[in-house]
């Protein structure tokens, strides 16, 4: 099955878009873990239409119920990769989904991995994109910094270039699906706490808190879950480094791929995210209807 609209992210921007695309009779799928930053909001007082404060979690649940009532599917899975050929292919920890249009609405980029001197070596040994930079580390000793399915996926992306790969969890316990647990035998695993990265002009290795060192040619960061910026770097989506660049129709530079909400660097308010999701939906609807007409 190929979905008309696939929405990545279950926050206000993503669900708003799903409400519109579902009402327009587009086969709509929303994918993401239920963990928007809005869940932590005890009271929301500035969103239109509510006389009394409403809890962030309550607001999110109500939005999802509305989208489902209109025909949208919502699944609780973590996305680890997006590709585009004739259409989009979205890979989660459990399945692969295909779609004609995609909306990125995963919120702000994740907090950078808490490792000293990681900024110093960005672009000179530290990378956030295996697809972009894996080629440069052929037959070299590399590491992946992370502890979730996203980290294992990125390590697997490096296998065509090198077999000498270590996953560094920085003291975090591994949180993996059963499927990725089976892949761990292909890599070395280091769970020690990292003190800092070291090197001259280029990364040379990792210094651990116990004073031990491990030499590395490259370190790929996949800390926590993949963010919209992570996907952008892989796919060649234009960014300003922190946010995805879109036009006034929420279009990225890749046809059929849109972005809305906090990942676009806008004023971080529910109302703004909802509005951007609605704008993106309009273009997604037009794109799919044109495809149906031309097909």
Q: Could you list the spans in which at least 5 consecutive residues all have pLDDT below 50?
A: none
Number of domains: 2
CATH class of the largest domain: Alpha Beta
Q: How many helix segments?
A: 7
Helix/strand class:
alpha/beta
CATH architecture of the largest domain: 3-Layer(bba) Sandwich
Oligomer: single chain
Principal-axes shape call: globular
Task: Give the distance, in angstroms, between the N- and C-terminal Cα atoms.
Answer: 16 Å
CATH 4th-level superfamily of the largest domain = FAD/NAD(P)-binding domain
Portion of residues in beta strands equals: 15-25%
Largest sheet, strands/sense/barrel = 7 strands, mixed
As for the CATH topology of the largest domain, it is FAD/NAD(P)-binding domain
Average pLDDT rating? 90
Q: What are the secondary-structure elements, in order, as H or E?
A: EHEHEEEEEHEHEHEEEEEHEH
**Rg result:** 20 Å
Helix content: 25-40%
Describe the structure in your own words.
The strands form three sheets. Strands 1, 2, 3, 4, 5, 6 and 15 form a seven-stranded mixed beta sheet that branches. The protein has helices at 12-23, 56-69, 130-133, 149-158, 178-181, 228-235, 270-294, and strands at residues 2-8, 28-31, 73-75, 79-84, 88-92, 96-104, 126-127, 142-145, 165-168, 188-190, 194-199, 203-208, 213-215, 218-221, 257-259. The chain is 26% helix and 23% strand. It starts with a strand and ends with a helix. The mean pLDDT is 90. It has 295 residues and is of the alpha/beta class. The chain folds into two domains: 2-109 and 227-294, FAD/NAD(P)-binding domain; 126-221, FAD/NAD(P)-binding domain (3-Layer(bba) Sandwich). α1 runs parallel beside α2 (56-69) and α1 runs parallel beside α7.
């Amino acid at each position: 099955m190929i979905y008309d609209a696939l929405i990545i992210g279950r926050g206000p921007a993503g669900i708003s878009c799903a409400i519109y695309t579902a009402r327009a009779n587009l086969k709509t799928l929303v994918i993401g873990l239920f963990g928007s930053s809005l869940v932590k909001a005890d009271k929301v007082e500035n969103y239109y239409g509510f006389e009394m404060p409403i809890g962030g979690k309550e607001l999110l649940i109500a939005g999802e119920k509305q989208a489902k009532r209109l025909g949208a599917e919502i699944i609780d899975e973590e996305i680890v990769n997006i590709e585009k050929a004739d259409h989009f292919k979205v890979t989660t920890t459990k399945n692969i989904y295909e779609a004609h249009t995609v909306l990125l609405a995963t919120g702000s980029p994740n907090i950078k991995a808490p490792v000293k001197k990681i900024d110093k070596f960005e672009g000179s040994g530290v990378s956030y994109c295996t697809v972009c930079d894996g080629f440069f580390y052929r037959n070299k000793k590399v590491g992946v910094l992370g502890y979730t399915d996203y980290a294992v996926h990125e390590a697997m992306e490096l296998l065509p270039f090198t077999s000498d790969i270590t996953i560094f969890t920085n003291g975090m316990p591994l949180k993996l699906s059963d499927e990725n647990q089976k892949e761990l035998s292909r890599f070395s695993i280091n769970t020690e706490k990292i003190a800092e990265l070291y090197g001259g002009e280029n990364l040379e290795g990792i210094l651990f808190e116990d004073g031990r060192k491990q030499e590395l040619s490259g370190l790929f960061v996949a800390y926590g879950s993949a963010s919209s910026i992570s996907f952008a770097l892989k796919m060649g989506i234009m960014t300003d480094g922190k946010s995805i660049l879109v036009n006034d129709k929420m279009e990225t530079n890749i046809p059929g791929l849109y972005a809305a909400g906090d990942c676009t660097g806008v004023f971080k308010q529910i109302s703004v995210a909802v509005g951007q999701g609605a704008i993106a939906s309009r273009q997604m609807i037009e794109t799919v209807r044109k495809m149906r007409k031309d097909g």
